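User: Please predict structures.

Assistant: First:
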Amino acid sequence: MFKSLASESKLLKISVLVALFFAILGVVWGKLVSSQLILFDGLYSLVSVMLSLLSLLVAQYIKKNDTKRFPYGKEMLEPVVIIIKYAVILILCIVTVITAIESLLSGGRETSVGQALIFAVVNTIGCVGVYFLLNKNKDRSGFIQAEANQWKMDTLISGAVLLGFFTAVIISFTSYQFLIPYVDPLMVLIVAGYFIKVPIVEITRAFREVLEMSPDQVIETNFKKVVNSIETRYQINESILRIAKVGNKLFIEIDFILNPQSKIVTIADQDKVREEIIQQTKGLVYKKWLTVSFTNDKRWAQKDLA
C-alpha cells in the first residue's frame, strides 16, 4: 500500500513539474507570436499545475492515518477535488470559446505561424510522453486517472495546435493567405468547444461518488457473480448487496438472509465466506471496506429501521 502511495506522489510530482514547464513556455511563446491557441494551451497547463498541486497535497493528506476523526477514511476528498479541478477547466474552456468567437467576428488574429509550429512540435511530443506514463498507471488512484485525463486533453490540444499551424504554413504558400488570421481563433474554437464535454462528464462521475451512488456496472456485476455463487454453494435463498465507490475505495455491504437449510452455522463459516469474497474480487484494484452480515430475519437487512 505504502509503495503504491509513494508511486502516486512521484507521478503527481512529475505531472506538476512538466506542466509547469509547458505552462511558462506556452504563455510566453503565445504572447511572443500573438497566438491565442498557444496562449490557451499555456493557460491550460498553468491551471493543470495548480490543480495537480492540489491533488498532490490532498493525496498526501489522505494517506495520513486519522481513524479517530475519519473512521471511514478520507477517500471522499478525492471526488471533491476532482469536481473542483474539472469545474475550473470547464470555466477556462467556456471563456476561451467566447474569446475565440470575438476574434473571428473581428477579423481574426495575425500570428507568426512558423514559430508557432516549432512550439507545437515540442509541446506535442512532451505531452504525449507524460500522458502515456500516467495512463499506464491510472488504475492506482482516481488522482492519477484525473491527471491522465488532463494530459490527454492537453495532448489533443497540442495536436490540434500542430495541425492548425501546419495547415497555416501550407496556406501561406497559396493564394489563400488572407485566411491565415482566422486559423488560430478557429482552432481555438474547435479545441476548446470539443473539450467542454470532458469536464462535464468527469464532474458528473465525481458527483456520483460524493452521493455514494452505485459504481460502474462492471464492479457491481463482479460482486453479484461472487454473491450468487456463495448463495448456491451454501444454500442461501436471498441476499442484499450494496456497493458504493468513493475515490479509490469500495464500500461493500452484503446481507445474507439464512434459512434452516443454509450451511452457515458457525462464526468460522461466516469468516470463510468473507475470505472467499475478498479472494474472488482481487481483480478489482480498489481498497475494499467489506461488511458481511448474516441474519434469519430479512427485517435486519433493510437498514431503514425506525
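Second:
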Amino acid sequence: MKEIDALIEGLGLEKRLTLEDIPNIDLYMDQVTQLFENIYSESKRDPEDKILTKTMINNYSKAKLLFPIKNKKYSKEHLLMISFIYQLKGGLSINDIKAVLDKMNAKFEQDQGGLAEVYNGYLSLHDKNSAGFKENVKTIDNMVNQELDNINDNDQEYFRSLLLITTLVNQSNMYRKLAEKLVDELKEVDEG
C-alpha cells in the first residue's frame, strides 16, 4: 500500500470552486460542466468518471435544488448552489439536499442575498477541515499500526489495509449519520 501521505495528496483536497474561478458572465450548461471538470478532475476515482453532467444538472433543476435558470444560462449564484449540491451528494440523499438548500434558494429568489458570504464561509471551513482530516488520518494510521502488533499473521499489509478501510468507513458513517440528524432537525424547524 502507498504511504498515507501519498494517498491523501492524491485526493485533491485543496481543489474547490472559488468565487474567483467563476466568470462574471452567465454560463451555458456545457461551460458549467467544463468548469467543474477542470476544477475537480484530480479528485476522480476513475479517469472515465464524470464530475458533473447535463443530466445531473437537469435532475437538480427538476428536483428544485436550484432556483430557476434564466435563458438557459447559469449565474454565479447557480454555480455556487451546484457546488453545494456536488459536495453534499456524496453523503446525503437528494431529498435531504433539497431540505438543506430550500431556504437558501428561497432567500436568493427573494433577493435577500447572502449566498456568496455563506459560500466563502464554507470555503474557509473546507480548508480547516482538510488540514484536520490530514492530521486525523495520520492518527488513525498510527492507531492501526499499533493494532497490527496484536495480529500474529504474515499478511500484515492486508490487515493494515483492512483496518484502515473499516476505520475510515466507520468514521464516515458516523459523520453522515450526524449530518442526517441535523437535516431531520432542519426539516422539523421548517415544518414547525
